[in-house]
Amino acid sequence: MIYLLFILFILFAFCGIPIAYALGVSSLVYIFYKGISLVLVAQKMFTGMDAFLLTAIPLFILAGNLMNASGLTEELIEFSKIFVGRIRGGLAYVNVIVSMIFAGMTGAGVSDTAAVGSILIPGMVKDGYKRDFTTAVTVISSTIGPVIPPSIPFVIYGAMTGISIGALFLAGFVPGILLGVSQMAVVLATSKREKLPRIEKKISFDEMVIVTKNAVLALMMPVIILGGIIGGFATPTEAAGIAAFYAFIIGVFVRRTVTPKVLKSVLIKSGITTGAVMILLGTAAIFSFILTTEMFPQMVATAVLSLTHNKIVILLLINAVLLVIGMFLDVVPALLVMTPVFLPLMKMVGVHPLHYGVICVLNLVIGLATPPVGMCLFVGANISKLSIEEVSKALIPFLVAVIGVLVIVTYWERAILWIPKLFGML
Amino acid sequence: MEAPRRRIPLLERIVRLKNWYQRFVNYLDGIIRVVLWVGISLIMFAVVFHVVGRYFFGKTYMGTMELVRYTMIWVSLLGASAAFGSEEHVGIKVLQLALPKRRWFWISMSGNLLLCVFLVAMIIGGVEISLRNWHQISLGMQIPMFYPYLAVPIGALLMLLYVLVNILNSIISIIPSLQRLSNTQRDKK
């Protein structure tokens, strides 16, 4: 019966039912089969969405959208050029660095592809970069978004498992920076081989000062969020609220790029995106309730442990499964479905739940950049007017590098846990 | 375009009905959007109010957190319904791209009907749970829990209305004569 639940879910998802509802419809089949009251549907959905921690989600979405609408992306690009602009392949490095800073403001990947890509893809192509390489850099670097804090997947993982969101955010730093560095290493290798262009114009000191001054407004955002949470001044929700308010003030009163009309559309867009994410939490709550009542996590654990007790092998297995799932499912639904399934097993073999959270999100995030359903890949290819195949081919070296990071993150627990430990969050 | 219209007035009536229905849903969409922007602003200002209250006045109002949570639930369910209109829901589109249009039509149609069954289940379960909580008073704001729970059936009802638009549109797009009619009507406007 429980396998049927999964099969139905996959079947429904392929029939064009949105993932959130495919979870609901397959759960409904079980509910009808067992003759359970429909109140369960409404009740589980409601409780799945009803948590103060989760209110950080609309606020982080709003903060990112407002920041985007205030037009600070271009300033961040100019700012990054100060450091790497004049190196060979400079704009490709800029692309990665801006994505890393952007990741410090938003918790999702796709908004980054859209914001950075729509400016940098045309810009880089004009400067003589190859179109497929340009798109590949943009797509892969946006996968850093949900890893470097703030991160919506981490908020959800924290709300599901009760692990401190502050600790999760801190644990995301090292993997996020490793992702950026590994991607820049690929750019470096390519720039040697393909003679990537460089900007000849020198940036004067005065220009540097102006550019930095302009970028400071945007750079303050991660400081507010992280400083608030880590310093213990604010809960994640409060930090998200202050960040959104800060972005609101910047956009409406300081930069004045966010007119009342723009503001309204940003608010509506944030509301719709919130809905699309939160409904997943609702329906996934029904689905995972069924999984737990049917003791599915225990079944998985026994099945895996009957094969091997070797932690290294089990982690390898889990990584492989999550990578494949990430290729087909978006980060949030995959996280919601797979966390209750794998977490008990992980605890049994002695993987720290915080460590597992980072591994899981990293695996799933890679799926954003892979065919057949990678969201960032689709958005990137759409901006550059290339086919998915062309971009995917150019993505291969980057994916190899990112999987290398995944291996490090999986097997070197200390590298992930030392920052949360340093701040006394563990 | 004059000839086919005289021959199939029934079809024309169907298209007109659908257009009327579409306008109705668009009107609802407008209302939902207002609720969304008001709701999201409310969440933001309430959280800021909460923080300011704690730091500057040393006071917090217990109801704020509850207000934020329940507003979010309403925003989420209404936002999820509007997401059908703006196609924000994430789905797997591999088959849609690979299959011929007609075969995909039948597959997506059965998918949509199953989706409707789920939404109806949400409405039934939601109405029941809301009514059961009529006398349950919330801790913070002291309101009946009926109102927060009501978001589930209302949200589901709105989703159902949006999904029906999508179903009607895909039926029209698959029948050539209907599509032609629908196009000429749109051109006239």
Characterize the structure shown.
The complex is a heterodimer of chains A (426) and B (189). Chain A has 426 residues and is mainly alpha-helical. Helix content of chain A is 78%, strand content 0%. Chain A has helices at 2-14, 19-34, 39-49, 56-69, 73-84, 90-103, 110-126, 131-142, 152-161, 165-194, 205-230, 236-254, 260-293, 296-307, 311-328, 331-348, 353-366, 375-384, 388-411, 413-422. In chain A, helix 5 (73-84) packs across helix 11 (205-230), helix 8 runs parallel beside helix 19 (388-411) and helix 13 runs parallel beside helix 16. The longest helix of chain A is centred in the middle third of the chain and has 34 residues, at 260-293. Chain A is globular, with a radius of gyration of 22 Å. Chain B is mostly helical. The chains are: A mainly alpha (426), B mainly alpha (189). At the A-B interface, helix 1, helix 2, helix 3, helix 4 and helix 12 of A face helix 2, helix 3, helix 4, helix 5 and helix 6 of B.
Which tags fit this structure?
A: 426 residues, 78% helix, B: 189 residues, mainly alpha, 83% helix, elongated
The major β-sheet of chain A equals: none
Our Rg estimate of chain A from Cα atoms comes to: 22 Å
Output the structural class of chain B. mainly alpha
State the assembly state of the protein chains. heterodimer
Q: In DSSP terms, counting alpha (H) and pi (I) runs of 4 or more, how many helices of chain B?
A: 7
Give helix % range of chain B: over 70%
**What is the number of beta strands of chain B?**
0
Number of helices of chain A: 20
The total count of strands of chain A amounts to: 0
**Biggest sheet of chain B, in brief?**
none
The 3D shape of chain B can be described as elongated
